[in-house]
Structures are given as C-alpha cells and as structure tokens.
C-alpha cells in the first residue's frame, strides 16, 4: 500500500507529459495566425514568495539502538518557506518542515499515545534551469534569458529542467516512554543536497515579459544528500547523566558524529495550480528517506510519505528588466 | 547527448522516481517476530551491551546453550515469556526486566530479598514514630522523636519530590534537634536528581562519591572512560552538620542504593540497618522483535574504595529488625539511630 501514492503520482505525471502531444495537433492550425514578437530583455521579475502548507500521511522510524523493528504511524507536516527569485534566474528557497507522527510499534500493535516521532527539516536550496523550454508539441525550444521569439498569446505546453544545490539539516527525535532512560533518541543529519527537477507548463500563454500565464504546472523533483555528517547515540545509547552536572552538559554526552555517503533522498511530484500572478496552490506527493547507515553505532532509518497542499503567495514583486518589444 | 531530447530526460527522471518512493529498497528488513529471533535478539543484546557480567559471574554462553534448544517458532507467547524470564533471572539484577501487554518478568531474587529480608514494619513506624500528627512536605513525611530531640524523616521513594528547599523547610521547623534519622528502607529508587537535592544540604568537602563508566563495545569488558562524581557544593544552603543517620535495608534499590553509597562519604553520616539490594548501574531500554519491551544495565559504578557494590551497599552499622521489638511496638533500628545521635 505504501507504493501506491508514488506510483499514482508518477502515472499522473507521465500522462500529463503525453497528453499535450495528443491535443496539440488541433491547436497547431491556429498558431500561424498568432502574432509573434521578440522580447528583448535580460530577466523577468524578481519575486519573494511565502510558502505555507501542510502534509498528511505516513511516517516510519527505525532505530536499531533500541529495537530491530519499525515504528509506523500517521504523520502531519506543516511547512513554512520563503522563495526568492523567478523562473528565469536562480531561485533560492528556504523551507522548514516539522512533522509529528504518532507511532505504533510492530508487530504486536499496542497503541501507545506516548510514542511519537518528530522530524524537523531545514532546507536551503538554489536552483537554476539547465535546459531551455522544450515544446511538447514540436521541436521548438525557447532559450531562457536571451532574445527569444515568443508566440504571444498562444497556448503551448513546455517542459524544462533545472538543477539545484544547497544544504539541509534533518533532526529526528523519537520518543517511546517504554524505553525508560532510552526513551528519547535523537538523530541529526547535515550536509549538502543536489536536486534535479522537471517542470511541465501546461497551457502556457506568453505575455510581453514572462510566461507566468501558464494556468497549470506539474513538477517532478528528485534530490539527494551525497554526503552527510550524522549525529547518533554512541554504544551505550544513553548519556552518563549523574546529576552532578547540569542536564545540558550531559545531553549528547554519549553521542557521536560520523560521515555517511548518500544519507538522504527525496522525491516531490505534484501539480501547481496558478491562482494569480505568481501565486499558486501546490498539491504534491513528497517522499523522504534517510539513513545513518552502518558506519555509526546504531543504524537509524526514517521514511515518510506525505500528501502536501501548499500555498505559495507572492509577497513582493519587482520588475528587473527593461523589456523592449519588437513587432515582427 | 542526454539534454537534446526532453523525453529522454523525462524518462530518466521518472525511472529514478520509480525506484524512489519505496524505502524498502534501501532498508534491511525488520527482524522477524518469531520466538527464535526474539530469543536470539535478547540474548545477543545482553551479551554485547550488558555491563555487569564481571560482578554477576554468569556464563552467558551456557545460559544460551541451556535455554535455546527449548525455543521453537510454533511455541506460545506464554512459553516464550517463561523462557526469557529464566534467561534474565540468571543475572539476578533488578534492572533487567522484560514486559509485554500482559505480564512483567523481573528478578525473582531481588523480589525475595526485598520482602523476605525486610527490615521495616510500616505499621510500627506509622503508629509510633510518624504518628497521626506527622507532617508531609513534598515526598518527606516526618515528626520529632526521642522527646523532640531527634527528627525522624521517612522517604519512601526517590520518585517523590525532595528538593533542597523542601528539605530545608523541614529542618528549619526543628531548629533545636540534635540530629536526623533519615529512613529510606524499602525505597526502590526513582529520580537520581532527588539524591542530589538532598545531598546539597550535607556538608560538602568536594569528596569523591563514586566513579562511573558506560559500556563502549561488544566485549564484556569494553568500557568507556571513568567519570568521577564529587559531592555537590552547598552553594547558598547552610549545611546540616549535626549527626545524620541513614536507615537502609534489602529493599533499597537503584537510586536508594546510590544515595547510601554517596552518603557514606560524608563525615556526619552513619548508614545503619542492612545491606541495600544494590542496583547502582543505569539501565537502558528497548523493544524486542515481537514488540515486548526490555531493559538492562549499560553502566557500572565504582565506589571510592574501588569496589563495585552492585549487589548491595553495606551499612556502617548493621542493625536488624527485632521481632520482639516490633511486638512491643518499637522499631529497634530507629531507636538505635536515635541513641547514636543522642550519645554523640
């Protein structure tokens, strides 16, 4: 059952990629009538957007320092983020996710309200397009950021790819009161992240400056943390707290850092519905997985499958180009 | 070139995402919840992480060899529980337990010595020492005895609140007493912080109380560095320098034993009664493959004299409860402690 959301999302995305090719034939006959312009400009708008949303789904935690079994349960994940940029430039995003999951232990479930997992993600990412806009109906390409020939007012479907890099920190806390002194387990992953993203613009209409009139977008992104510094409990798992020292001094006394290659991966696939200039509602399926691997004392694995609905609201927009329209 | 065709890139990305979205590709499977896997897991966890094999003198391999043949995957939960209970009972450790939804297995030996060798009679203490006009401040229940010259304080659990301020309040109520009898008999332990709160009112000389170290590897003698623990500063508290007699018995376990060990280092303290039940090491917990919970010790505590008193902290003065005294409504241990204070 866990595979279903990702596969459905992939099917939807694949269908969306194929569908424009099918319908494009009937639109093609009209394209020649449309006015074409050359937009001479450097870049589009500078935008600052706020991202607010919530995800719900399923989370899994397994900490071999305390149990060889997975703990699973319902997870809720609010997100707040800031997006700086525009489509044609470097886009910088800072997102903070916090998910809280109420967990059941397996395989003899005994619903324990006191058992839960909290996962915090802080992600900084800069991404930039690495290809031009590819038309799905023809061999047309639009080269972003250059003098381009834009089919003004024409509805077309484009896909373009972008690559991103940045850094992320994942802090996972699992709490199980039945474990007494080992009731709380903390894991922290910090490291660089790389990502690859495809954006599919459906029914794109160009205006003089930008392509933000696309009424729907689909996206598909995969990212991974190629190298992470991981903080995990040491061999004894619990701190050697003696009360002779302040609690904060003893906290993480037993914890150890280690390096883990390919510690984390995520995928994000979804549909963005544009509700206004630069404003959109994003419905997406987000899968994350991370593992401390076997190089530390006790392996930790965390996965989550969440259906997100996020609202991206334009806070500030500034036109940074001085566009000159030349009619052909 | 990959980038020449968007369909190639899209297909590659979709293929990547097909492999993603399923953590099972990356995660080894959970350990099976079978009785054999559960037995093996618990045995191995204790073998590699338990910290007291040197004082328990248990041949852990022999324990496995004797019990493992009796475990099979079709056995009932009750039968498995009984075998795991036998396994942990060989350690004779009150900090080694397993529990499921319907039963708890703890050390039978610790249970027996707590009740069979009890040095405490609650009715006698309640009726003739605390009396009906006693006071209760936090977890401290108290009254004066010996004609008002001695303060008797009963502290039944280290899980009950006992802050420095509470203890100071109790002492301030009796400015003219000649000493305190502090009774922790049958105290099964609790919060280590409460030990510290109480010690903050005893005259500190910064003396070594004990050393502790954590298990640091799978071999039975793999331990991390020793950490020395010293008497806490009195700070702004005025230390209680008059005689202080701590009453212990075989029902004192965990934090109560640790408290007895620490107080032996204070010059105005006499530990009286019986040897405690021990339990100085710190337990860590977890879950077994079948979902039952467990705990066992992962540290060890060494006294300033270099001995690990895991099996019990001996008193400075051995005094056993006399059935004749109890029959007469007296607790001869409390009376001995009061006499010691008055003769000081």
Can you describe this structure?
The complex is a heterodimer of chains A (about 325) and B (about 350). Chain A is mainly beta and about 325 residues long. Chain A has two helices and 15 strands. The longest helix of chain A is centred in the N-terminal third of the chain and has 28 residues. Chain B is an alpha/beta fold. Chain B has two domains: about 80 residues, no CATH class; about 180 residues, 2-enoyl-CoA Hydratase, Chain A, domain 1, CATH 3.90.226. Helix content of chain B is about 35%, strand content about 20%. Chain B contains twelve helices and 14 strands. The model of chain B has no long low-confidence stretch (mean pLDDT about 90). Classes of the chains: A mainly beta (about 325), B alpha/beta (about 350). At the A-B interface, helix 1, strand 12, strand 13 and strand 14 of A face helix 1, helix 9, strand 7, strand 8 and strand 11 of B.
List the helices and strands and how they pair.
The complex is a heterodimer of chains A (328) and B (344).
Chain A: H1 4-31, E1 36-40, E2 45-63, E3 71-85, E4 91-105, E5 116-129, E6 133-135, E7 141-142, E8 148-151, E9 156-175, E10 184-204, E11 216-233, H2 247-250, E12 255-276, E13 279-291, E14 300-319, E15 324-327
Antiparallel strand pairs in A: 1-8, 1-15, 2-3, 2-14, 3-4, 4-5, 5-9, 6-7, 6-9, 9-10, 10-11, 11-12, 12-13, 13-14
Chain B: H1 6-19, H2 35-49, H3 53-56, H4 60-67, H5 77-89, E1 97-99, E2 104-105, H6 108-116, H7 122-130, E3 135-137, E4 140-145, E5 150-154, H8 164-172, E6 179-183, H9 192-199, E7 208-214, E8 227-230, E9 244-248, H10 255-263, E10 269-273, E11 283-287, E12 293-297, E13 299-302, E14 317-318, H11 323-327, H12 332-342
Parallel strand pairs in B: 5-6, 6-9, 9-10, 10-14
Antiparallel strand pairs in B: 1-2, 1-12, 3-4, 4-5, 7-8, 7-13, 11-12
Helix pairs in contact in B: 2-5
